[in-house]
Fold these 2 entries.
Entry 1:
Amino acid sequence: MINRRLGRLALVAGVATAFSMSAFAQNTVRIGGLATLDGPFVVLGQEAFRAMELAFEEANYTAGGRKIEWIKESSDGRPDVALTKARKLIEQDKVDILIGPMSGGEGLAVKEYAKQVPNKTFVNGFSAAQETTLVSPAPNFFRFSTDGAQWQAGLGTYAYDVKGYRNVAVVSGDYSFGYTQVLGFMSEFCAKGGKVIEKIWVPNGTKDFSSSIARIPAKADAVYVMLGGADAVNFLTQYDQSGATQPLIAGSNVVDQTVLSAKGPFQRRLVGTPSAHMVADEIDTQAYRDYVAQYKKRFPNGLSSPSAPYYGYYVATKAVLAALNQVGGDVGGDQAKFRQALANVKLDTAYGPVRLDENRQAIANIYVTEVARRADGSLYNRPLKVIPNVNQTLGQPKDAFVARGVPSRDNPSCP
Amino acid sequence: MKLLLLATMNGVTLAALYFIVASGFTLIFGMMRVVNLAHGSLYLIGAYIGYDVASVTGYWFLALFGGAIGAALVGVAMQYFVLDRYQGQDLRQALVTIGLSLIAADLLLARYGGMTYQFEVPEFLYGSVPMPIVGGYPTFRLALIVFAIALYVGLWLLVQRTRFGIIIRAGVDDRQMLGAVGINLTRVSTLVFALGSALVGVAGVVGSSALSIAPGEDARYLLSSLVVVIVGGMGSIPGAAIGALLVGLAEQIGLAYFPTYSVVISFVIMVAVLAWRPYGLLGRPA
C-alpha cells in the first residue's frame, strides 16, 4: 500500500517536473486559448478551438522562429468563470499571450483583468460588447473582430430605403449585447427619419414569448428581433403560430448558423429576412471559397460553413502569429515591441481587410444579408451589400458618439 | 384590454403545460416521498426520444407514445436500480437524483449536441384559430388546455375511483401501514414511478412542440415543477393545477406588463405561499 502510494507520488512529481521544465523552456511562446466548451455556447466554443487549431497548423506551430505551445481553457459564458480561467492561464500556465474570450460580459471582465497584468497581451476572441474597447480600454487588450453595434452597419439604411419601413418595433434580449445591437440598428434607422415605436426587452432565457409578441403594436411596419440560440427558435415559432403578419428584421444572432440549422416550421418565416454581420455565406470571391474549402477539409464534422466565432478566433490567432513573425518571437519583458507590431497588423481575410484603430479595435467590412434557401433546402445568409471599413463609431465623430453614452434600454430612443 | 386578455390566455396555456409536467412530479412525491430532482432530465429524455420517433416514422402522435415509453423505462430503471436502495432516506435520494440528472444532461448533450430541435406538429394543430377581440390564437396552445384538462380528469378518476388510486392515496397517508396490509410496495412504487415518468415524457413532447428542445430545458422545467408543486402543495394533483395556474399567469402577465421583473414574480408567490401556508395551498404535513 505504502509502496503504491510512494510510486504514485513519484509519478506525480515526475510529471510536475516535466511540466514546469516545458513551462520555462526558453524557445517556446505560450499562447492561451479561452473559449466556451461548457454552458449554452458549446457549439461556439468548439468553433473557436477549431479556428485556433487550424491557424496554428498553418503556421506549423512556429512563429518568429520559436515554437508555439497552445494551452486551452474552457469557460461557460459567465464573466466570473471567464475571469477565473483567464487568471489561471496567465498566473499558473504562464502564457505570454491570451486569445479569448467568447461572449460580451466575459470580454468586459477579461479586459479589466488585463489592466492588472500590463506585461501580458490579450487578444479578444469573439466577445462583442461595445464598451470593451470604447470606454476606458486596456492598453494591452486588442480586438480584431468588430463589435455588436458595428455588425448592424447598413441594416437601418437598408430597412428604411429598400424595404420602406418607417415604424419598427424592437424585441430584444435584455442584456448588454442586445442593447449594443439595437443601438447599431437604430443609429442609422433613426437618422434616416425612421421611428422605433416600441421596445420590448425580454429577460434572457425566456422560452414563452407569447405575451411579448402580444405587445407588438399593430401599426409597426416591421419587427426588429435580437435573440440568440433556442430563444430565437422559440420566438420565431411562436411568432409564426400567433398569425402575426409583420415582416422581421434580424439581429446578428437570430440568423446565426446555430439557428438557421435548427429544423422546424419556423424556417419559412425566416426566408427573406434582412440582417447584417461581420460574416456572410457564399460570398463570390476566391479568398472566401478557399476559406470555406479549407474549413471543410480540415473539419469534416464541423458546421455546414465556418461560423462567426470561428472567424473571430481565426483572425485573432492570425494577427498574433503575424506580429510574432515580425518581432522574431520576442515576447520577453513588457512585450512592448510585440504590442507595437500587433497594433499595426493589417490582415487580408476572406471577408476583407482588417486593421485596428487607436483603441486597438477592428475596422472591417460588414455585410448586409438576407436569409435565402439553398437548393438542398438549407438556409444561409446571402450577402446583399458590403459596407466597407466600418469603424467603432459607425462613421460618426468619436466625441459625439461617446457623449451619447453606452447603449442601454432607453439609449438611443426615437419613438 | 386586448393585451390583458392575450396575456391571460397565454398564462392559462402555459399553466396547462406546467401542470402536465408537474403532475408526474407530484404523483411520485405523494406516493413515495421521493423528491425526484431528475424530473427535468426525464422531460428532456422524453422530448428527445419523441423527436427521434417522429423523425423516423413521420407521425407526431407516435412521438407522444415514444416519449412516454422512453421516459417511463428510464424512470423505472432509476427507481428499481438506484432509488429503491435508499428507501426512506430523503436526502440521499435527492442527492442521487441530482447526480443522475447531471449525468443524463451530459449524455444527452453528447448524443444530440447543442442544437435546438423542433417538432413538426400535424397541420391541423399548427397555425392560429380566429377569435373575437384578440384576432387569432395559436391552435396548439388551445390544444394544450384541452389536453391538460383531460389529463386532470383522468388522473382524478384514477386516484379517486380505482383500486390503484386507493392504494396511492393510502400510500400518501401511511406507507408502512399499506405495506402491513399486504400490498407489494416495490411493485406499487415502480408502477407509480412509471406513470409519473410517462407523464413527464409526454410533457416533453408536448412542451417541445409548443416551444423547443434544447440543452438546459431540463433545469428549467425542474425549477418550474418545483415552484408549482411547492405553491400547490406537494403530492396533491389539484394543488399542482392551482399552482400551475398561479405561476403561469404570473409569468405571462408579468412578461406583458413589467418584463424586467417577470422572473422574480413566481418566486415572490412561492415565498408568500410558504410564509402563509408552509405545506402549500392544498398540501398537508407529511
Note: The radius of gyration of chain B is 19 Å.
Entry 2:
Amino acid sequence: MKVLIAEDENISRMVLAKALANHGYEVLQAHDGQEAWDIFQKEKKDIYVAILDWQMPEMDGLELCQKIKDASLSHYVYVIFLTGKKDIDSIVEGLETGADDYLPKPFDRRELLSRLKVGLRLIEFEKALREANEKLHTLAITDGLTGISNRRGILERLRSEISRAGRENSTFCLIMLDIDHFKKVNDTYGHSAGDEVLVEVVNRIKSALRPYDVIGRYGGEEFVVGISKAGSKISRVIAERFRTCICERPFQIEGGKIDVSISSGVVDFMPSRDNDINDLLEAMIKAADIALYKAKEAGRNRVAYISIV
Amino acid sequence: MEQEKTKPVFDQEAALERVGGDMEFLKELIELFKSDYPAKLAQLSKGLREKDFKTISETGHSLKSASGNLSLTRVYDLSFKIEGMGRKGKIQGIEKAYNELEEELGKIKNLF
C-alpha cells in the first residue's frame, strides 16, 4: 500500500514524507500536480491514499483530486488535502470535489497519522463491501447444485459471446439439451439420486467442452451450451459428442447404476454488429427449443438441428 | 505588529514535535530553508516592483508553508499576511510586511 503526496513546497513535503515513512508507509513524492498525476497513473493499483496540497503549479489539488476520483479503480483512494488554516472556502470546495478529509497547514504529526488511520478504516470497509458484493453477484449467477452458471448467469454470458461473435464475424452455436425421462429418475430413485444425475451430466459435458465454451443450467433438467466459432457441421459433431458421453456408460449413483440419455437441439447463426443482442438470443433459444422438441419427438437420445434465417 | 514581536523567532520545541523529535532532520530542514529563502525574498521583491500580485501571493504561500513546518513563528505570520494581501492586491501593506519579513529572515541565519 502506497501513499502519494503532492506538495510543491520542499520543506512541507519532506516533513510529510518523513512522518509517513517513519510510520511504515511507502511514500511516493510529487513536486507538482502534473507529476503527481503521472505517478498516479503508473502506480495506481498500489496507491490507496493521496495527500494533496491545494495550491500547486501545473495542476492544482482540486483538478488532481477530481482526476483521481474519476479514475475507475478496483479499490478506494482516500484523498486528504492540505490547506491554510482558516480557508473555509477551499475546505468546502475540496470536500465537495470528492476529497475525504483535509488537514490544516502546517499539519500536526499526530493528527496526520490518526486521520490517516481513519482513512485506512474506510478503505478496509470499502474492500470488505466490494468483496461481499462480488460474492453475492457470483452466488446470484451460479447454480448451487452443479456449480455452473444458472439461467441468469448463462444468459449474461451468452449475450457477451454473441456480441463478440458479431464483432469478429464468426458463427455462434447454441445447444439446448435436456435429460430424457428425468422425472422417472426422481420418482423411482428419489430426489437426491436426481441431483446426483444432474451433477454427473454436467461433469461429463464439461469434460467434453473446450475451455472457452460456456455452459449453464437453464431450467430443472435443461442445460444450454454456447459454442464459439463453430458452424452447423462442427456444432452437430459437438452435440453428438455430448450425447455419446452421457449414454455410453451407465451412471453410478447411490442405490445402483442407471442408464441416462439426453436429447439436444442445435442452432447456429453468424451475428452481425447490427443485430440486437437480446432479440437474437431470444430467437436462438426459441429455435434450439424447437429443435430439442423435434429430437424428443423422434424418440429421444438424439440430436436435432435447426437453421434460422 | 507588536503582537508578533512577542512571539519567538523560532519555536524549537514545537518544531521538534513536528518532525517527531528528530533533531538531525530538523537541522537539515533549517539548512534547506536558509539556502532557499534568499531566492524567495528576491522573488517577492521583484513581485513588489512589478506589482505582480500573483507572484507575491504564491511566494508568500510557499514561504508560509515552509516556515509553518519549521515553527519559524514570525516569518510564518508575516508570509501569511503577505499572501493574503497579495491576493487582495494591497500594495502598501505588502511593502511594510516585506521589510519586516526581510529583517526576520535575517535572524534565521544564526539558528544552529
Note: The two ends of chain B are 26 Å apart (CA to CA).
